[in-house]
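Hello again, I could really use a second opinion on something today. I've been staring at a protein lately and its backbone has me curious. You're getting the sequence in one-letter code plus the fold written as tokens. I'd be grateful if you could look everything over and explain what you see. No rush at all, and the record is pasted right below:
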Amino acid sequence: MTGSIDLATVWAFIIAFAVFVYVVMDGFDLGLGILFPLFPQKADRDVIMNSVAPVWDGNETWLVLGGGGMMAAFPLAYAVLMPALYTPMIAMLIGLIFRGVAFEFRWRTLTKKNRWDIAFAGGSLLATLAQGIALGAILQGVHVEGRHYAGGWWDWLTLFSILTGLALVIGYALLGATWLVLKTEGELRDKAYHLSWWLLFAMLGAIGAVSIATPFLHIQYTQRWFTWPNIILTAPVPIAVAGVTVLVPLILGYTAWAYWVFRGKVRAGSGYH
């Protein structure tokens, strides 16, 4: 076997994998915080927090791997992107800090109105919006001159970046709702199930809006998406989205059917526990 391993490519795959796993693993975690205001009952909120308490801090380590890996493997890209994204990155960290503190202190509050619930929900929403806006800012491009960031302080804030931020909020909320469908029962699960359908259609609309807007950002996107043979490389993404669009309703329908059958057998006293 000849040739050498391209470490840059290897690290790119590692960072991409870390970001992907973070979105999946911490996405439902943040989504639960986004959905928190929709569940005003203290008992429901306690169940939601307990469902994610064993895993929430471990989920965020994937973000450290992605950011730390980029700084170690691609220091120039890191040095260019960070000045361009200081504001959304700082906002994200503030949101994550509020979430972490709320996890620890909400159990110690004895008052009926728990202000740490507000910190948990607000921190989750702020962190998610910041992540989506940062993604949109990267997609729309960063002004670089002489290997340094040459843009302005507010270049990250555009209609497109706000669109990607809102799309990510909807996506994480959908992950949170489906997590509750999987992990809870009773009225809480039923409400999460109905929310999942609304959020699924909202997510499809958000994907469509971002997909329509992205090719108009730069001519390079249009060429890479719609010219031959580049379309062969980009086609798997919309095909995968279409496949997931079909699978999610089927899975939601099956889990609802299985849950109602199981609950019916329990009520009938068939020996299920």
In short: Residues 264 and 270 are 9 Å apart (CA to CA). The chain has a mean pLDDT of 82.
